[in-house]
Amino acid sequence: RAKQRGRDTYHFFDPDQDRLLQVRHEQRQRFIDALNRDELRLYFQPQVDMRSGQVIGVEALIRWQHPEQGLLAPGQFLSTIDTTSLEIDLGEWVLTQALNQLTQWQAQGISITISVNISPTHLLISDFSQRLGELLKRYSHVPPKMLKLEVLESAAMHDITAALKNIACCQSLGVGFAIDDFGTGFSSLTHLRQLPVDLIKIDRSFVRDMLTDPNDMAIVESVIYMANRFDRAMLAEGVETLDHAKALMKLGCFLAQGFGIARPMPAEAIPAWLIQWPNQTDWQALTRLS
Ligand code: C2E
Ligand code: MG
Ligand code: MG
Ligand code: MG
């Protein structure tokens, strides 16, 4: 329409901008189709206690099984989900899938918690906890404590009052909360004091280089120190090697998740992984160090 009226009317008309909006619209539409056509999958990455080797849970990580492009990671498509309603649709899809999976594992005698990543926009809708409560009622055979939510520090920062209210309501339902990518926000320390979260996840960017970069080591040390002072459980993300694991344990961080332990995998692969994990002798030897 703007095009037809011509450049004289709209001096600020920018064809590149127009094209960009169109592309975004198409991407968004394609994602809605993916939701409806059942092309999304949850992968699961184990989280363990390095002291005992015990598996404490799995994190649900979304994938898009794209018919032409293959398996896509969230970094390749999450940015197209830029409307509140789509974020809610996706978030509720993930929560429902997680509860279905918990149901299935429960029937197989497998008892592990699932952590679900909740987008900031989704967490901040006013009836978030009410809708979660209704969903949990539909899955009354699943104890709410089997579900955990991971929220980015920035989510809480955006509207601390709303975030605190929703987090408290969810916790009263029995659902656990973790702060994800801790250390990447701007006011981590203040939030740690205010937020009643059960778990702090140290961002993997700090863990990755902690053995070679003294600055990253300093950040990891400080986060572990603070988490201990505030009496909060903490988990290190991105634990890729035994050396990382040993260093973290020495600093007092015992919960871990990372490619060195297990990569994210389809739900069907979890039972076999649970059986072979105790046989990973390198990792099991860590339990003797603690
Ligand atoms: P996150 O929640 O911090 O998830 C951890 C990411 O680190 C995952 O990437 C995981 O595959 C990756 N990772 C774990 N261990 C290692 C390691 O040892 N080395 C390396 N290099 N990477 C490791 P993924 O699956 O690509 O997810 C990226 C982000 O996308 C997640 O970061 C989360 O913020 C977001 N995300 C994933 N699933 C969902 C979802 O269902 N909903 C929403 N809203 N966001 C999601
Ligand atoms: Mg996460
Ligand atoms: Mg993270
Ligand atoms: Mg992350």
Automatic annotation (TrEMBL):
Taxonomic placement: Bacteria, Pseudomonadati, Pseudomonadota, Gammaproteobacteria, Oceanospirillales
Limits of the EAL domain: 24-278
Top-level taxonomic group: Bacteria
Section of the entire sequence shown: 301 to 590 of 590
Coiled coil location: none
Protein name according to UniProt: EAL domain-containing protein
